[in-house]
Amino acid sequence: MAKYGVMQQSHTWVSPRSSLLPSSVSDFHGSSLNISIQSWRRKCQPKETAIRVMASSKNILVMGGTRFIGVFLSRLLVNEGHQVTLFTRGKTPITQQLPGESDQDYADFKSKVLHLKGDRQDFEFVKTSLAAKGFDVVYDINGREAVEVEPIIDALPNLQQYIYCSSAGVYLKTETPPHFEVDAVDPKSRHKGKLETESLLVSRGVNWTSIRPVYIYGPLNYNPVEEWFFHRLKAGRPIPIPGSGIQITQLGHVKDLAKAFIKVLDNPKASKQVFNISGSKYVTFDGLAKACAKAAGFPEPELIHYNAKEFDFGKKKAFPFRDQHFFASIEKAQRELGWVPEFDLVQGLADSYNLDFGRGTFRKAADFTTDDMILEKKKKLVLI
């Protein structure tokens, strides 16, 4: 099995921002809704845009198009006039109607999307089936290891662009955040497979683009990010937060992420480039809990702070975020791609709640085991 070294970026762009904690840090307030350049163009130049889209229509393969990111991305690609094929194992429904989506819109989408059933770990099948289709562009949403990507490149020698979903988790921990695309990466991170994939794309001379999200949230999120808070808010429980609660993090809405994926398609400025994608503001852990409550219409919650080192939670995860400052600059994507996140934090959390959890749908049932451990210890300390 081949091993690939960590990619070293050659560009030397440096942000003018120099302060340790940027002015955009917020307890929970977000920026006002911004109208994207793309939507402005559609309103002002509908005929010219339609001609452009049809003229540049691509035969696109989406690896991982049935969960979360891929669901929203595939909608946008079909709406842009591209032929979209979803590569899946076929163990779950190929398409699903989005919350709030009309029956007609869903029927239109379902009739246009194609499906290729297979396992991406079956490398010979991947090579054979993809070579026969001759895709122009690959969106790889669920690739984790370089060995999973190499057969795709082998099968498509005339590939125009490989657009990869990486992660901001690849960056080496720093004392001077936010992370920029030129920052050092951690070859020992749990996302090292994504780094090796980026390195493979470079070594093979592919026209690639890598997107590095921070934390992603929004309707259909299968990671317990906002859902973790919503469960506790609905149950009227205190929210346990590790440390002081002033740790700063960053969330990006899935719909904004999907639009960023569209922005890099066939874009010369995205060729062989990495882009951080997330929300425009940062937020503290305490502020996030309050933002979730405000977005969902719950009273401001009671926050309980604890020292995680005093507990043995076993294999259970007591909090959905890494206990540290973790946020990234999105200035490069804004400057080079003209991409602007449309959701501020509270607005985006409200969108997630109203279209998902608020309707009674969620990915994981509530589990307050670790909360009870924390609250019990706090109670004992009070009694002493």
UniProtKB/TrEMBL annotation:
<dbReference type="Pfam" id="PF01370">
    <property type="entry name" value="Epimerase"/>
</dbReference>
<dbReference type="GO" id="GO:0005829">
    <property type="term" value="C:cytosol"/>
</dbReference>
<dbReference type="InterPro" id="IPR001509">
    <property type="entry name" value="Epimerase_deHydtase"/>
</dbReference>
<dbReference type="GO" id="GO:0003978">
    <property type="term" value="F:UDP-glucose 4-epimerase activity"/>
</dbReference>
<dbReference type="InterPro" id="IPR036291">
    <property type="entry name" value="NAD(P)-bd_dom_sf"/>
</dbReference>
<protein>
    <submittedName>
        <fullName>Chloroplast stem-loop binding protein of b</fullName>
    </submittedName>
</protein>
<feature type="domain" description="NAD-dependent epimerase/dehydratase">
    <location>
        <begin position="60"/>
        <end position="277"/>
    </location>
</feature>
<dbReference type="GO" id="GO:0005996">
    <property type="term" value="P:monosaccharide metabolic process"/>
</dbReference>
